[in-house]
Design a protein that fits this description.
2 copies of one chain form a homodimer. With about 425 residues, chain A is α/β, with parallel strands linked by helices. Chain A has 19 helices and 10 strands.
Chain lengths: ~425, ~425
Amino acid sequence: MTTQIEQARTGGRPTTEMVQAVEHEPLDPAALCRLVAEGRAVVLTNTARRPAGACAIGTGLRTKVNANIGTSHDYADPARELRKLAIAENAGADTVMDLSTGGDIAAIRRTIIEHARIPVGTVPIYSAGADAVARGQTVTDMTADDMLRAVRSHVADGVTFVTVHCGVTRSVIRTLDSGKRICGIVSRGGTFLAQWIRRTGQENPLFERFDELIGIAREFDATLSLGDGLRPGCLADSMDAAQVHELMVLGELRDRAFAAGVQVIIEGPGHVPIGQIEAQVKLEKELCHGAPFYVLGPLVTDVAPGYDHITSAIGGAIAAAAGADFLCYVTPAEHLSLPDDEQVRQGVVAARIAAHAGDLGKGLPGAADWDAEMSRLRRKRDWKGQLLRCLDPTVARAVREHGRPADEEVCSMCGKYCVFKLADEGGK
Amino acid sequence: MTTQIEQARTGGRPTTEMVQAVEHEPLDPAALCRLVAEGRAVVLTNTARRPAGACAIGTGLRTKVNANIGTSHDYADPARELRKLAIAENAGADTVMDLSTGGDIAAIRRTIIEHARIPVGTVPIYSAGADAVARGQTVTDMTADDMLRAVRSHVADGVTFVTVHCGVTRSVIRTLDSGKRICGIVSRGGTFLAQWIRRTGQENPLFERFDELIGIAREFDATLSLGDGLRPGCLADSMDAAQVHELMVLGELRDRAFAAGVQVIIEGPGHVPIGQIEAQVKLEKELCHGAPFYVLGPLVTDVAPGYDHITSAIGGAIAAAAGADFLCYVTPAEHLSLPDDEQVRQGVVAARIAAHAGDLGKGLPGAADWDAEMSRLRRKRDWKGQLLRCLDPTVARAVREHGRPADEEVCSMCGKYCVFKLADEGGK
């Protein structure tokens, strides 16, 4: 069998997945096919279990939104996570990542994949670490084989993209140690690996045995999401030598995977001051040769726990406008607790706002049509139309009903002084 | 008596208000004094009734946040607006504007000024228009004298800054008419004046009799906030000839007021695509010779009613980072209804996040210290400290309690896999 990239490279004929993936995109299958051949876009798929909804991520495509779900030690109920999956899908998430670390992780993953209508991603090292803990060991007792086995097992289950923190190398950790971070490493996978390396003295198996990872991804035509284990955990730590060093390593690994016909996306921060966001996106595009950039946030301030869906919507919109392709949502619970249903919903909506604002900034063909349509409905005081076509009809309707006007033609803020009503009555 | 500007110009000695205003600012009274003398900062005050809390706005100062409160036809209860005033103050608003258009507008204004601990602004033409309607006439039956009288009456009550839509001139309206906006005029004051001009054929009294406005502001040392009656009401209308033409007029008027020793701020949009925000800020700073820029939002998409506190936090952060000085909050109720207490609170918090992110982007001295402090507390897993020092302790505490962890040392998302706990236990 050949992968999406190989098919794109050799025949130039779009795959079934590509045709499906551009259904709601401003480009045609042939254009997506060229972008995949160049490694500037990926099509999330898996030959073991093709996801119900195809999704392509990268240049020329709508900015996508991922919602993280999954159990923790404190909240290990699979039913709760299935509910979050449905909420994320209904709120418009393009992908979900199952980041479960509590309960029967393998069973939960399989259930989520089974129920998901959108592509599912995971971080295999979480389950490898948790398995070690379940055996009464610690996270750093994982073997290199455990790590590779976890990746294979996730991908064989039908996961379409796996986060692998291949860039947390001994050399990158030396760079980290020579710096002065406030928060050190804040990626869980990055922490597992850094501690494993420190304890064993050996090189990161996900780096050293990268060809095996390529082999697993090739076998199932899955996508490698090269994780940023050294992403900054606060503004002060942003864009330091450790972060940039890791990104350079990821750029080299991207080239190897790409050459082998395996799709790659690159993960990025995190916590970034507003003035550095564009530079970070440009740097990724340069060092990783145009590979799709998948950012977590970025959060533009550290001071607003409880509102990190907003701090990350600010950063996400700027990142997307600068060329980031894929936004991982952040919920209001970030830094405080595992999100509940409503927080998942809020996180998806905030990230979708950021993604759309970013698409407008990118000049994505057709993106402004939605805004123009909403504006025409607003001008006509077509409330039914506005409440039907807006990003979240349920919430918009509830807000309007809550502050109900006496006159149905206007809203309760301006009432008879509604500028559109005045214009209609007074001419212009 | 002499105004803040005159005192700054002649003696170069900071006024009492300046000394008070820099208490929580990264500059000293002498520096503020120089900025006021150059018209690049204003100190909100009123000799009839000096506000309890002094507030300076402009270059070198923290980005400020205004909360709009006030009655409408549908919700005309003064008690409700006093409650919103207290909520806005407690949530950290730097100023409030009373935009009442329902009930006994003058009485409500006076009550708000009496209770406010922060400077109060208003839009006098609202009450002039509402008075005409109360007399059984229409808004366009206001006389020129009515408009000027309203301004004097508001300022004499102790309002520190008044929005006056002086730039909606006959010539600017011709420019508007030659364009093709979707939403036309969306400023209420702008609509009142445009319709008045169309009906009477006369020039905008706030433009033609601008010297009288200067006189009123001088008399009470109040600040003129030159309103953008032609601000775009949707992304498609942004930065058109009409908007820029009005801004050019405001730049000229700013020079006249400044020469007469009257403080001026310039109001800006509105709805602006993410890629135009920086250009709009630079344009204002250029055309208005460094006058403080007061933006409403800007909203970066038209499609998300119910979430315009988020769409505007994105735009506000970018605007502030580019040099905007003063953000008018937008609540989740925008475009749908008059905001209630909780929506006011959410609006203030979202705008404060944007303002702080903008201050980081501006490189405001000391702004990053707060983030660094929060990050050190986070690294130490000092939950008490984090919940005390964050932007909204009440909400952050509630989110943490709602998703309570079994182990108080961590949060319920990562639990025993908390990266900081692992680092403390595993070294680094």
